[in-house]
Amino acid sequence: MNLSDIKGIGPKTEKLFNKAGVYSVDDLLKYYPRNYDIFEEPVLINDLENDRVFSLRLKVARALEIKKIRNLIIINAILSDSEGNTIKATWFNAPYLKSTLETGSSHIFRGFVKVKNGAYLLEQPKIYTESAYKSKMGEMQPIYPLVKGLTNTVVQKSVKAAIDMIIDYDDYLPDEIRNEYELCDIWNAIKSIHYPTTKESVIRSRNRLVFDEFFSFVYMLRMFKEDKEIVENKHIMDVDCRIDDFINSLPYELTNAQKNAWEEIKADFSGNKPMNRLVQGDVGSGKTIIAILALLNVAFHGFQGALMVPTEVLARQHFEEITNIIDRNKYPFKAVLLTGSMTAKEKRETLNHIKNDDNVKIIVGTHAIFQDSVDYNNLALAITDEQHRFGVKQRNAIAQKGDSPHVIVMSATPIPRTLAIILYGDLDISVIDELPANRLPIKNCVVGNEYRPNAYRFMKKQIDEGRQIYIICPSVEYSEATEGENVIDYADKLMKIFPPSVRISYLHGKMKNSDKNEIMEKFASNEIQILVSTTVVEVGVNVPNATVMMIENSERFGLAALHQLRGRVGRGKYQSYCIFVNGSKKKDASKRLDILAKTNDGFEISSEDLKLRGPGDFFGIRQSGDMEFKIGDIYTDSKVLKQADDAVKKITENYFNLSEERLNALNRSVRFMNNYGVDNTRINI
Q1: Sign of torsion, CA 63 68 71 74?
Q2: Which among 27, 29, 25, 3 is positioned nearest to 14, based on CA atoms?
Q3: Quick one: CA torsion of 120, 122, 127, 129, rounded to 10 degrees?
Q4: Cβ-based neighbour number of residue 192 at 10 Å
Q5: Model confidence over 201-241: pLDDT tens digits?
Q6: Which of 137, 261, 543, 551 is a plausible cystine mate for 472, CB 3.0–4.6 Å?
Q7: CB atoms inside a 10 Å sphere around CB 605
Q8: Which of 487, 494, 478, 484 is nearest to 509 (CA)?
Q9: Which helix H or strand E contains 72, and what residues bound it?
Q10: Can you list the domains of the chain with their CATH numbers?
Q11: Residues 6+ apart with CB under 8 A from 450
């Protein structure tokens, strides 16, 4: 059914939903809440925590303070609880409160708590009588992800109307599977995830929906793998002797882990079926040189190899490195660069070289190198770097560019091996779990907000020594709903703290690609000394001269994402440092961040993260950061992921004796979910 079939959704609202990626009734039913607003028992002021919504039973301790600034009326109140502790509350443009909040009157105040000038502040709290609040106790109101113009109320009403329209909703999972893993039926799960009655009902519903998401993903991976195993290796090759000469000429010795990965790739080149391999290595472990060895070997055999990376700056860096290797060793072929920002003329010329120039054997670029307009002469190897930015469907499409080319995907995301085997089910896995001997370990510390002046002094000293700084903020601009640091205001603040000779700029994902590339180029060439950025720099550019990474509000990020960010420093010969600023007073946040302070081993970090997290975490902020399933989380839901993998094996290996009709129904449903419900382009693996 179309969205327009739902009562209350007209053309304007339909366009807003389309912006949010919702095009059908089925999309809407799978537009899951990101959190729930739960009316709980009021707490005391001493029980408050920063950055959360609380309810408090408070008395107006003194007369309201009313200020008028231009067209803005600001009302401040001092409120006290039963223990005599006080808190300030602020409202904007609410003059009617003068008659409601009389000195000495008691109410229940519910609002967002933040720390300002060392004290708690209630901002724009709603006010309830005892009876009104009691009637709402236990309610769980869904909070949806929104786009500009789309309100939470509109989504709530639309979802309810869609649910009321549907009479029958078939469950595609066989009863045997549901009973085996104690799963509720799909229709109850969908209704309850949007309109739960208890936390337990949300957990039960979410468990089923997460299972479905993982099940369909793993099922399709298995289908991909079975299809690929039928294909024969049409580019069988040994390793050219010049590769060994090149390895011996390197100014360093490959680590044992790098050597093992290269041996596995060599075996794939000469095997019976095309290589389909993941090279999973921690940040800074030396995956790039392994990719270069593979590209050179393909070129020596007269074939083409392509390397795709996520940003233009990184593509240019890799292209320059490969070109220098070719020129220095006088190899009889050349490399070309292809990116989205090229002029039409440059693109035409490059595309012509790729298709018709027999000397072009290595192609480096962004996603542009695998667009429909690119015709290869004889593509035998496709490599995607930073694989967690490219989904399963993309890598399958890449393989169609040549005559069943070898495929290598590279990931710096540290996932425990037991989960990686499931998530990369269509790939063989090589793990590079050693750092090169010449790398100095990054020095880490976890600090509170009060440490900032010391951090700035330390940064100034590093800049005086010629080094550069990254500062990461969780948001782009100020938002009342998110009180974390933001890149635009932060960069302005730093310009007042550091002398004019220190060049400061900011970077975020909402900027034009050309502007992002320009700033990253300037940072790479040390024209910018401090770069304030969102996580967009996570896979952006290699800057060996950057030695300090400070991550503001680090408690808001997942450990895997923090570890990826930390990997932007420590890439050169200088000692590097990472400062995690913890803006939360929660013990759990400190415990998680302490893991990062104690180790630079990404695989150990991911394993510890797995131990720390539990099924209750989804009531808070999503933390993994790298595996963007719609509702599932590979760390929180690792048990469900393993169950889904087990269920797929039981069905495909005929543990459950399904009739052909039921198996066909299952295949149709899984295919539908992968085409419309589970968006593999957003699954960052």
Answers
A1: negative
A2: 3
A3: -10
A4: 21
A5: 999 999 999 999 899 888 888 877 777 677 899 999 999 99
A6: 551
A7: 22
A8: 487
A9: strand 72-80
A10: 40-137 (2.40.50.140), 234-432 (3.40.50.300), 443-599 (3.40.50.300)
A11: none
Does the pLDDT at position 477 exceed 60?
A: no
Host H or E run for residue 108? strand 106-116
Q: Is 609 helix (H, G, I), strand (E, B) or coil?
A: helix
CA distance 126 to 15: 32
Of 291, 299, 294, residue with least CA distance to 318: 291
Q: In what order do the strands lie in the sheet with 276-281?
A: 334-338, 360-365, 304-308, 379-384, 406-411, 276-281, 428-432
The answer to whether 560 touches 282, Cβ cutoff 8 Å, is: no
Helices (H), 6-112: 11-19, 25-29, 97-100
Type of residue numbered 62: R
286 torsion bin: left (phi>0), alpha (psi -120 to 50), beta (else): left
The dihedral over CA atoms of 347, 349, 355, 358, expressed in degrees to the nearest 10, equals -140
Q: What's the CA gap between 296 and 278, in Å, rounded?
A: 19
pTM over 0.85: no
CA gyration radius, the chain: 28
Average pLDDT over residues 647-670: 73
Q: What values do phi and psi take at 119, rounded to 5?
A: -130, 155
Q: What is the pLDDT of residues 66-101, one digit of tens each?
A: 998 888 899 999 999 999 999 999 999 888 898 889
Closest CA to 176 of 514, 587, 618, 666: 666
What residues contact residue 138 under an 8 Å CB cut-off, 6+ apart? 38, 39, 198
How many residues appear in the chain? Answer: 685
Q: Give the tens place of pLDDT for each residue, 536-583.
A: 775 557 899 999 999 998 988 878 788 888 988 988 889 999 999 998
Residue with tokens 């010049």: 242
Place of tokens 């150990």: 604
Burial track 461-499 (b if 16+ CB lie within 10 A, e otherwise): ebbeeebbbbbbbbbbeeeeebbbbbbebbbeebeeebe
Name the band, by pLDDT with cuts 50, 70 and 90, for residue 372.
Answer: confident
CA-to-CA distance for 404 and 232, rounded, in angstroms? 8
Token output for 61 = 């301790």
CA dihedral 432, 434, 440, 441 (to 10 degrees): 90
Q: Give the residue carrying structure tokens 């220098």.
A: 324
Q: Using the Cα atoms of residue 194, residue 200, residue 205 and residue 210 in order, give the sign of their dihedral.
A: positive
**3-state DSSP helix/strand/coil % of the chain, to nearest 5:** 45, 20, 35
CB contact at 8 A, 538 and 562: no
Report DSSP state, residue 70: T
